[in-house]
């Protein structure tokens, strides 16, 4: 029988799991919540889901391992370290801590587990199966609950000496700016993520007196989808919120180009569904922040894979080629 891998994409809101063949076919998928406060409870849920997927695909092949993409995951020791957006990864003091996810999940399932940063997993999937296929130098930026990134240079992921290279979501884009869950201020994540867009909306509503569909909503419960829906209906404030987001993201992308000289920047994640409202401003801001040697050379690509597929495919590929991109 053919060999199968379990690919898991762990996010702040949910964890998406899939059974994948060696040629990249996802046979079965399942989604569980990540909104659990206790690690042992989350582990039990995740392990149970893996076992269920193995049972459901037993007639198609044999599961030989698990690959995981998760925020702040370290491939060197299988841990998740100080992930601000994972509730179950907090210590008794309520602060982000260190969780030995790979070892614990291996104990619970009997399958070997490899782990990497979620954006690195998405980059692996995109290069193998998506729009970045065959591109040896590109930056993957995931725009979801937070902002993640994976950097591929000369065909290999950049990990750095400790496995944590490429935290572009926590580059400071505004000195003394918004407080980030990571403990720093002014991080890109606080402006260009789904949560960041919602924060921008609340600020606009407080400072801008014009009429808007957003005023009909509870400011504390506004989501990026609410803002997108308003923009689709022609709401001027909603459109400006996305334009503002695009300008901040674009300037940051211009800085990213300067240190790695990628052929392309690939954008992935739920927020990219709103790209019609931020793409032009983003590209202009990036171009304005580029030296002449790079102007007109950097491709801006959007993931061609289904929203959950890139990270699941990339995570599962670690089972087949753990030391490669």
Textual characterization of the structure:
With 325 residues, the chain is of the alpha/beta class. The chain has two domains: 3-124 and 308-320, 2-Layer Sandwich (Nucleotidyltransferase, domain 5); 135-302, 2-Layer Sandwich (Nucleotidyltransferase, domain 5). It is built from nine helices and 13 strands. Strands 3-2-1-4-8 form a five-stranded mixed sheet. It has a five-stranded mixed sheet with strand order 11-10-9-12-13, sandwiched between helices. A hairpin with a 4-residue loop joins strand 2 and strand 3. The longest helix is centred in the last third of the chain and has 25 residues, at 236-260. The radius of gyration is 20 Å and the shape is globular. The two termini are 26 Å apart.
A few lines on this structure:
The chain has nine helices and 13 strands. It has 325 residues and is α/β, with parallel strands linked by helices.
Strand content: 15-25%
Q: What letter string, H or E per element, gives the SSE order?
A: EEEHEEEEHEHEEEHHHHEHEH
Mean pLDDT: 93
CATH topology assignment of the largest domain: Nucleotidyltransferase, domain 5
Q: Whole-number radius of gyration? A: 20 Å
Give a quick account of the main beta sheet: strands, pairing sense, barrel closure: 5 strands, mixed
Shape: globular
CATH class of the largest domain: Alpha Beta
From the N-terminal CA to the C-terminal CA, the straight-line distance is: 26 Å
The CATH superfamily of the largest domain is known as: ATPase, nucleotide binding domain
Percent helix: 25-40%
The strand count comes to 13
Number of helices: 9
Multimerization state:
single chain
Report the CATH architecture of the largest domain: 2-Layer Sandwich
């Amino acid at each position: 029988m053919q060999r199968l891998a379990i690919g898991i994409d762990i996010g702040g809101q949910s964890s998406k799991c899939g059974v994948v063949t060696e040629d990249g076919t996802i046979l079965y998928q399942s989604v569980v919540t990540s909104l659990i406060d206790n690690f042992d409870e989350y582990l039990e849920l995740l392990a149970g889901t893996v076992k269920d997927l193995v049972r459901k695909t037993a007639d198609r092949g044999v599961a030989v391992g698990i690959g995981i993409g998760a925020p702040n995951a370290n491939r060197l020791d299988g841990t998740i370290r100080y992930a601000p957006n994972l509730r179950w990864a907090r210590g008794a003091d309520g602060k982000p801590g260190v969780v030995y996810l790979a070892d614990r999940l291996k104990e619970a399932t009997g399958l070997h587990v490899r782990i990497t940063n979620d954006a690195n997993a998405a980059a692996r999937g995109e290069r193998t199966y998506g729009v970045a296929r065959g591109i040896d130098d590109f930056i993957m930026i995931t725009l979801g609950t937070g902002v993640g990134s994976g950097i591929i240079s000369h065909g290999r992921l950049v990990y750095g000496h400790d496995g944590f290279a490429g935290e572009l979501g926590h580059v400071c884009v505004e000195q003394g700016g918004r407080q980030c869950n990571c403990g720093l201020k002014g991080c890109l994540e606080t402006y260009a993520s789904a949560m960041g867009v919602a924060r921008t909306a609340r600020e606009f509503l407080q400072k801008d007196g014009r009429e808007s569909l957003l005023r009909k909503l509870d400011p504390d419960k506004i989501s990026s989808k609410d803002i997108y829906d308003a923009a689709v209906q022609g709401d001027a404030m909603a459109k400006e919120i996305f334009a503002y987001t695009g300008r901040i993201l674009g300037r940051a992308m211009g800085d990213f180009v300067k240190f790695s000289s990628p052929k392309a920047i690939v954008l992935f994640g739920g927020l990219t569904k709103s790209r019609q409202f931020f793409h032009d401003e983003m590209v202009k801001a990036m171009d304005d922040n580029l030296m002449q040697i790079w102007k007109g050379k950097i491709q801006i690509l959007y993931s061609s894979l289904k929203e959950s597929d890139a990270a699941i495919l990339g995570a599962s590929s670690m089972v087949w080629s753990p030391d490669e991109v």
